[in-house]
Fold:
Amino acid sequence: MSKIKGAVVVDVDRCKGCNLCVVACPTQTLALTTNEVNHKGYVYSYMAQPDSCIGCSSCAIVCPDGCISVYKTKPATAKPAVVADKVEIVSGVAPLVNNVPVEEEREVVLMKGNEAIAHAAVRCGCDGYFGYPITPQSEVLETLAELKPWETTGMVVLQAESEVAAINMLYGGGGTGKRVMTSSASVGIALMQEGISYMAGAEVPGVIVNVQRGGPGLGTIQPSQSDYNQATRGGGNGDYNVIVLAPNSVQEMADFVDQAFELAFKYRTPVMILTDGVIGQMMEKVVLPPYKPRRTEAELVAECPWASNGNGLKQRGVNVVTSLELDPVEMEKKNLQLQAKFKKIAENEVRYETVGCEDADYLIVAFGSAARISEKAMSLARERGIKVGLFRPITLWPFPEAEIREISKTMKGVLTMEINAGQMVFDVRAAVESQIPVAHFGRLGGIVPDPEEVVNALVEKLVK
Ligand code: SF4
Ligand code: SF4
Structure:
């Protein structure tokens, strides 16, 4: 079977010849010019061996200036692609009414997942963003800096001095009832865990975006899903969970921002959008959400009577927002109240998607970018006569345990496909309760598996 090939386009005029893309390319496709410079006087990157490109996107991910666009190209023998709907790229500025952008029509735009997160934050009435740049999520902060929402909606955008500072700004902002957001990548999210635990203990809402890269430690800047355990087990000290949403497209990156804020305020809890370098960096067609004005102070007082912001002080007295309680009896009561809240979330907020499970003998369970790859693997397996279905958890916590248990009753085996060493597989095994074999397949070090590798793993581990 022919492999899908790749091609890259370098924005030569933006390139500064740093060589990062050349080093990151696993197939030596790229090189720097030796006798030509761009208008800035820099040598620039070009496709020296176009036939070698596999479309892995590593070059686009590492480029600090966003110069590279990667395209997948069909092999010559492949069936013609279905013609996509016309994509209208709108770059105009929305009109203002009372200093709030008002949308007249839904826009369809082509953009990166990280950029969609930033646009969605401005559009869904976010009051403040605090973050620190780290690959592969820096475009969130960069896009917000370009959008300048402080001049339109009044949203604050602040580059903090560190991830620790950013999460504590989130704690402070959320404690006043404001809709606040931060973003980082893996190692940066690890630094934030103390603050996330404080927020969960003090019941402070806030949205945290994790665009995962490979670990452990500083690891790599390429995509990974190795923060599954960190995200779904709370991540910091104490007994708590945060709601974890896993988008698998640029559209869901945009859609999940407002959903995350709604859940954060409904349950007074931090909510994490757990994505990765693939979804953060890839460009897709997206319909951005309509503009929603930021809440007024009166609305905030009505919706957040617990907030510590001085508003409504005369009516309600002093609000103290803290996770500290020195009386163990009171602290146990507080913990039990938190556990009751987590139980309610688990009962009401599970989200998932299934594809082709009705007649399937084998099930692949995968989330985020791994689900996109697995959907292709599913159709390749069916071409080989193996009936495979896909189960995509959208909430990783709460995990769709009962739903996986039910669907696995008609299956012969389950494969979890994760871009890690095997983390979600333990939750799937717990759900399936040893009724059928559950195996794991994944790649490490920032390598994103090919759909054919997934089919081969399924055959080797389960079908035989
Ligand atoms: S997409 Fe991958 S293979 Fe192609 S040039 Fe970029 S890094 Fe190299
Ligand atoms: S990483 Fe970007 S800026 Fe650096 S050489 Fe490659 S294209 Fe140019």
Remarks:
- The domain at 5-73 is CATH 3.30.70.20 (Alpha-Beta Plaits).
- Residues 328-348 form the longest helix (21 residues).
- The radius of gyration is 23 Å.
- Residues 96 and 102 are 6 Å apart (CA to CA).
